[in-house]
Write a structure and sequence with these properties.
This protein is mainly beta and 220 residues long. The protein has one domain: Lipoprotein localisation LolA/LolB/LppX (outer membrane lipoprotein receptor (LolB), chain A, Clam), CATH 2.50.20. It is 14% helix and 45% strand. A 12-stranded mixed β-sheet has the order 7-8-9-10-11-1-2-3-4-5-6-12. The longest helix is centred in the N-terminal third of the chain and has 14 residues.
Length: 220
């Protein structure tokens, strides 16, 4: 359970922005890969809302499956909500509520834009330009689909991962594989992505009235 949740947060950490430009002398990225990634980013930016079902699989260095977690993510502008078994994360763009169903507790924190706060939206936007070097490996077959494989290498070598493989289906990210230095591998797959559905703003705010007896930990 802990590894699955840490994997979920690793994904958001992976796509956090870095304010500095790519340092000189570290290599160059593949322009063909950039075209594909730019297409994904530009397409995502046209959506007013997004609802996507996903799965997160965790494996150790020996290839043993440590568990699979499924869930749904909702996005609207800077707002998001992640629903997985045992946990829900709400954000209205300024506040984050993390609800633990087992403990019936919610932790409230402030989203700080100046601190490069982590959001699911960065998974689909142009995270790659400042954080990674990238190259197009070509077309591959994955789960019966023909996808483009792009390999990303983090510029910051202190990151806990050393390689990311992104698989593109037309103009959307189908699967992301993260390879940690400790041997663990995280595979994040989008099973269904539905753009421009009607999603009320109330979806992104934790309403304590709907959770009788909830323990509130306010860190703001």
């Amino acid at each position: 359970m802990k590894k699955l949740l840490s994997g979920l947060f690793l994904l958001t950490m992976l796509f956090s922005a870095i304010n500095a430009q790519v340092p000189k002398g570290i290599g160059t990225s593949d322009p063909e890969a950039k075209k594909v990634l730019d297409g994904v980013s530009n397409k995502f930016k046209t959506y007013k809302t997004v609802q996507a079902k996903f799965s997160l699989k965790v494996e150790n260095a020996a290839g043993k499956n440590l568990g699979v977690k499924t869930g749904t993510v909702y996005m609207k502008g800077s707002k998001y909500r992640i629903s997985v078994t045992g946990q829900e994360i709400f954000s209205d763009g300024s506040t984050i509520w993390t609800f633990d169903k087992a403990d019936n507790s919610v932790t409230i924190s402030k989203l700080d834009p100046s601190a490069n706060s982590l959001t699911p939206q960065k998974l689909f936007s142009n995270f790659y330009d400042k954080d990674f070097l990238y190259k197009l490996n070509g077309d591959v077959k994955l789960n019966g689909k023909s996808l483009k494989e792009i390999e990303l290498t983090p510029i910051d070598k202190t990151k806990p991962f050393f390689k990311v493989l992104v698989y593109i289906d037309k103009s959307s990210i189908n699967t992301t594989k993260i390879f940690e230095k400790n041997g663990n591998r995280y595979t994040y797959s989008t099973n269904a992505l539905t753009p421009n559905t009607v999603i009320a703003d109330a979806m992104f705010v934790f309403d304590a009235k709907k959770y009788p007896g909830v323990d509130i930990v306010d860190l703001r």
